[in-house]
């Protein structure tokens, strides 16, 4: 296949926002140096660089397994060599909005497990929190160091056709993907070193250092021992668990490597037991302690929650953070910002209909062919309907699901996610993208300038998840 450069392609009429092209098809100023470089490259060179990237990712072992794939085959996440570029002034707005949002989410989590002021004030219906499947009564009254629950947050950002940034969803339980952010940058610097001489791209490679610092700050211990806890190598994100442990220089452990004695957590080592102070856990609440949650879990550590409640170990993220990233709670985040911070939200929410409310359900049922419908606990692009792309059969199937269990769904307008030039089979063409920056909350809130840039590789697709055929890009934040 011959890869064509941008000037060899008939660009389609724009119906949304393109990150590189303005409405009149002129190149946006922050993309101009890259566009000039791209047009000076030969198709053969660009194609060869893409093949090199695929080979290198295979050698490193950056793969994932697909939920529901009974073959168990590991897949390579497609990597696109055309970066998403964001100018400094836009990033400053995003950074401020992300810090504001995560501060409010942490305040909300502390509140609902303590005095529940926001519920008493009627800002959020109490039943949507207290009977939420992600609400953990074991956390009630438990004081955490610095009142922090979401030490690591991945906030999914999209840009709509109006040019504005919107938060699509908050990921506070075990947000993943940061290893791809780091490996994508490493790959781009290896393949195209000359590009980084032409562009002042803000670095991201210090993320593991910031992560370790954040985890250490979460503990009251003088010299805390930190570990990364994984469900094991069969987990779809195991590469990332091992990668982050290696990058931070800490131990990667499974539940069987830990035990609890006298309300303290210890790690088995060749030199004998070693006390663990901070666990960066990459498994869900229900599997973490069989004495408190799922009794048949072989992944967790018996007694871990008792040690946690005694204040002898920190879990990052905290147990029970999932209630704050539940899609039924998402519509209330702007109210959280006003309630806890007395500020107006800097980042916009997507308008959302809660199908648990009869009047909103009626609207959704009458407009299914125009809306996106999501399960409130759904993830990875599963359990959702994109009305404009769905068949009549799919729409009717979702109509039945909504009528049977309306509280399990929310609906949103179909946003026209912005597009970015992307290498595809036919050459270079616009494809829809999003961005997941990673917010680290410790003594201060820090964000590396960038994030996981995901791209929907199928023409017209709005689903960027790797499990649904999406790929990734390097995200460049230009320094001022």
TrEMBL record:
Task: Kindly provide the name given to this protein in its UniProt entry.
Answer: Circularly permuted ATP-grasp type 2 domain-containing protein
What's the short name of a Pfam family annotated to this entry? CP_ATPgrasp_2
Output the superkingdom of the source species: Bacteria
Q: Where is the Circularly permuted ATP-grasp type domain?
A: 83-456
Entry-linked SUPFAM superfamilies: Glutathione synthetase ATP-binding domain-like
């Amino acid at each position: 296949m011959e890869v064509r450069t941008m000037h060899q392609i008939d660009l389609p009429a724009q119906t949304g926002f393109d990150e590189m092209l303005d409405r009149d098809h002129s190149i946006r100023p922050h993309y101009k140096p890259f566009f000039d470089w791209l047009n000076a490259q030969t198709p053969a060179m660009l194609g060869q660089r893409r093949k090199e990237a695929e080979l290198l990712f295979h050698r490193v072992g950056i793969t994932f397994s697909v939920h529901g794939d009974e073959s168990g085959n590991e897949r390579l996440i497609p990597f696109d060599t055309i970066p998403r570029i964001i100018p400094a002034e836009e990033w400053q707005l995003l950074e401020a909005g992300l810090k504001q949002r995560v501060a409010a989410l942490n305040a909300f989590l502390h509140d609902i497990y303590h005095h529940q002021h926001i519920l008493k004030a009627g800002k959020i219906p109490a039943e949507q929190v207290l009977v939420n499947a992600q609400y953990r009564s074991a956390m009630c009254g438990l004081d955490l160091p610095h009142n922090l629950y979401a030490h690591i947050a991945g906030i999914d950002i999209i840009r709509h056709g109006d040019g504005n940034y919107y938060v699509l969803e908050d990921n506070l339980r075990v947000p993943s993907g940061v290893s791809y952010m780091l490996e994508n940058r490493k790959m781009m610097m290896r393949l195209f070193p000359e590009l980084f001489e032409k562009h002042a791209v803000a670095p991201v490679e210090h993320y593991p250092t910031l992560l370790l610092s954040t985890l250490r700050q979460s503990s009251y211990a003088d010299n805390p021992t930190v570990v990364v806890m994984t469900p094991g190598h069969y987990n779809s994100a195991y590469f990332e668990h091992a990668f982050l442990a290696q990058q931070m220089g800490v131990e990667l452990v499974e539940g069987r490597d830990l035990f609890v004695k006298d309300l303290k957590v210890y790690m088995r080592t060749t030199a004998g037991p070693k006390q663990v102070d901070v666990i960066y856990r990459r498994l869900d609440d229900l599997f973490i302690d069989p004495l408190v949650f799922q009794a048949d879990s072989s992944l967790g550590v018996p007694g871990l929650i008792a040690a946690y409640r005694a204040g002898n170990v920190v879990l990052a993220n905290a147990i029970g953070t999932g209630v704050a990233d539940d899609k039924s709670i998402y519509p209330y985040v702007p109210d959280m910002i006003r309630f806890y911070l007395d500020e107006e939200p800097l980042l916009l929410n997507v308008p959302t209909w809660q199908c648990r409310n009869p009047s909103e359900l009626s609207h959704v049922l009458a407009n299914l062919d125009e809306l996106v419908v999501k399960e409130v606990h759904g993830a990875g692009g599963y359990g959702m309907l994109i009305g404009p792309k769905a068949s009549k059969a799919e729409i009717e199937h979702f109509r039945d699901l909504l009528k049977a269990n309306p509280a399990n769904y929310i609906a949103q307008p179909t946003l026209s996610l912005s597009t970015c030039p992307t290498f595809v089979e036919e050459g270079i063409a616009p494809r829809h993208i999003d961005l997941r920056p990673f917010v680290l909350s410790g003594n201060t809130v820090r964000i590396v300038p960038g994030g996981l840039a995901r791209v929907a590789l199928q023409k017209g697709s709005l689903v960027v998840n790797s499990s649904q055929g999406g790929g990734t890009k390097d995200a460049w934040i230009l320094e001022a």
